[in-house]
Backbone:
């Protein structure tokens, strides 16, 4: 295997950064969190130390992957909010159809946000804030008198919680595969849509009564 030399130009650095993200996506989709930075480096034909010039930890690498996924999703959310018919179904479908996004949500708080530099954590939260501020006016146009930020925070909590519940691991995954126990398994898409229907109905009632 040929180990490539360090990228020198800004374009070359960005190309290498995107390559690391592509490799991380492939490994994550195949094996979840069960891969190492060494495997990322090997798949990208880079020295292990080179990967740390771009991402200090595996968690930072995957958090950047989550950022990419969310950037695409927020673009879709803007489109959905411009024609908010069947809003709960549209939003639930826009998230549940992205398997990688849901899988990253399932480990966001418990794993990805636990091993970060201050700079990486700040970058991620700043991204979320900027995206949220851009979509809040559209949410508040649909739900007058309701805080758009509150809606997004509730949506975020629902998605993360249901993603975790719908993707059990280890022994619990084996248990939930038993025929007599399968009824306890949480279907992410269905549960999210039902939860959003209840949320939006509650918000509409709250707005009408205030």
Residues:
């Amino acid at each position: 295997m040929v180990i490539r030399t360090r990228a020198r130009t800004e374009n070359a650095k960005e190309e290498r950064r995107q390559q690391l993200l592509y490799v991380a996506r492939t490994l994550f989709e195949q094996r979840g969190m069960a891969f190492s930075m060494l495997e990322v480096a090997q798949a990208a034909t880079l020295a292990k130390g080179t990967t740390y010039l771009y991402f200090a930890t595996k968690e930072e690498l995957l958090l950047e992957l989550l950022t990419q996924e969310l950037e695409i999703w927020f673009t879709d959310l803007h489109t959905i909010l411009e024609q908010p018919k069947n809003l709960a179904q549209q939003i639930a479908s826009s998230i549940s159809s992205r398997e990688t996004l849901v899988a990253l949500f399932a480990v966001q708080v418990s794993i990805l946000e636990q091993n970060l530099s201050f700079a990486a954590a700040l970058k991620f939260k700043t991204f979320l804030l900027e995206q949220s501020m851009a979509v809040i006016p559209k949410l508040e146009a649909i739900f007058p008198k309701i805080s758009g930020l509150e809606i997004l925070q509730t949506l975020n909590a629902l998605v993360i919680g249901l993603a975790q519940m719908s993707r059990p691991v280890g022994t619990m995954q084996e248990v939930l595969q038993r025929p007599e126990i399968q009824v306890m398994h949480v279907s992410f898409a269905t549960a999210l849509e039902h939860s959003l229907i209840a949320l939006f109905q509650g918000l509409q009632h709250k707005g009408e009564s205030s």
Notes: The chain has two domains: 1-54, 58-209. The mean pLDDT is 93.
